[in-house]
Give the backbone structure.
Amino acid sequence: MKDLPARFRTLFPERCPVIAMIHVAALPGTPAYGGQMEAVIAQAISEAELYRDHGVDGIIIENMHDAPYLNRVVGHEISTAMAVIARAVRAVWTGPLGLQILAGANQAALAAALVAGADFIRAEGFVFGHVADEGWIGSDAGRLLRYRKQIGAEHVQIFTDIKKKHSAHATTADVDLGETARAAEFFRSDALIVTGVATGSPARPEDGQAVRLASHLPVLIGSGINPVILEAYFPVCDGVIVGSWMKADDDWRNPPEARRIQTMVDAVRRLR
């Protein structure tokens, strides 16, 4: 086990933390919004309590149901809603709490995390550029870290996806994962996230290893993890972000199931 930065170890002292996803229901103004914000909040609280009771190590709140996503800039209704939801979750969840606002709305996520008392954000498009299904997304590391300084949120860590899913990386095909990892570390990322090509698609273990060897930062596997394949990733990562597999029928659209959560948590504990 490599020597991880103190900032990360303070949040996650256990080996290979399990970080669960709360995919909040569609938010105000988005095509699928149901008109009942209190129901959205209640669902998020209920899922946080379920994750808490079955021993996950961290939670990320994400606006996955807001599709189709905007590119980088979201309305105040989204960032405000995410802050309110995260604050409500914080009342029942005392562990590490993260936020992600799609797509690549990293400044909005950082502001929401600050006011909600969250510990980190999951950021897309931190270094280099790529074509996502929302269009071209350029690097925002410089603007994001200056914004973090400006609002006094330097304690909020930034976990960054590199060569992120649902994207084409042809423009940086000559920049491999290792070099991308080194760039993110140089630009002051707090942790690196390696994914497969889409939500629920496994990352390759060799990609995790390449990123692990290229930087001193924690490496998280951010998609496709399940208890069957977990052992192959355990030597090459410092944590797993699990969404789809802990939901009913292995589908991120469904609510989480206690049986699946406990199976994942137990599988990690056996390997620690």
